[in-house]
Amino acid sequence: MRTRAVLGVVLFALGCAAKPHPVQPQYQPVASVLEEVATLRRHLPDDTYRFEAGRDFTGRNIYRASLIRLESIERVHADSLRAGNLDDVIAYAKARALERLRAYDLAAESHRVAAERDGPLRGEARKAASLDDGLAEAIQIGYEPDRPLRSGVRPIPAPSDPNGAIAEYDRRLALLDALGDEANDTFLEPVVKEEVERCDMARARYFVARRKLDPDGNVRALAELQRVVARHRESKNANRHLLDLADLYAAMAEEYVQARPPESLFFDPPAFQELVDSASQLYEAVANQDGTPEKLEAARRLEAFLAFTLRVDRDRFSPQ
Known about the structure:
Layout: H1 2-18, H2 33-43, H3 62-76, H4 87-100, H5 104-115, H6 122-138, H7 162-182, H8 189-209, H9 217-231, H10 238-259, H11 269-287, H12 294-315
Helix pairs in contact: 2-3, 2-4, 3-4, 4-5, 5-6, 6-7, 7-8, 8-9, 9-10, 10-11, 10-12, 11-12
């Protein structure tokens, strides 16, 4: 018995000694400019209009991370880079990262720096700089309160005339369409599509914001949001657009109840039910899509909205 006990202890000790310990991954800083440029180059063809931007090993946006690392390399290895052999490569890479971050004016400047050197990047950098200048100009057109502004540019006040606002959005869209033709089959093609989507969203939000000022404001706001949904079905933000439309229907249902309490004689059950059905169907459409970040959000909003409708059903009187 004693021999068996000793043997068991020995085998247990050997088993513990043989068990490998988990090794935590050790991430090292970027070793060279070429290593970071190669990482960025893999993601430049990504269609960021249809899909989310790529992530690095830390989970951060690959374009933002690449820009930070390139700037860090320039600062830490300034002496090694003093000869300037990689100036055009670094400037070109930074410009491509800046484009995906909507810093088009800075991207154009970096592209022009890259084009100063006579090399294989010169022609492409000149064309990209021209496109970036056009994008920087386009995003300043039309009313959009939360957009980034160039230094020294004042925010555009909200236009009081809807026709004037539409004219500005159409002017912005026409410029973006022209840039889109030039950007076909280039790294900027999805970027231009993203800006077209933002223009359509800015136009829809303008009419949503002023819908209570016009007699047909609700109808116009719904039409504008439906326009965004129809025009950008392939966008990565397609579910977000459906949620915006559902939220507007839900808000209109709540406003209808506030204006016409369900126990009053002015309450029209079919009109209210139409708003409820529209909002519920849109929420359900998003909540039924597995693998999307908006799934849980839509499910929770649907629950809250249905709770509101149950309270209304308790108080309203349907005709017998």
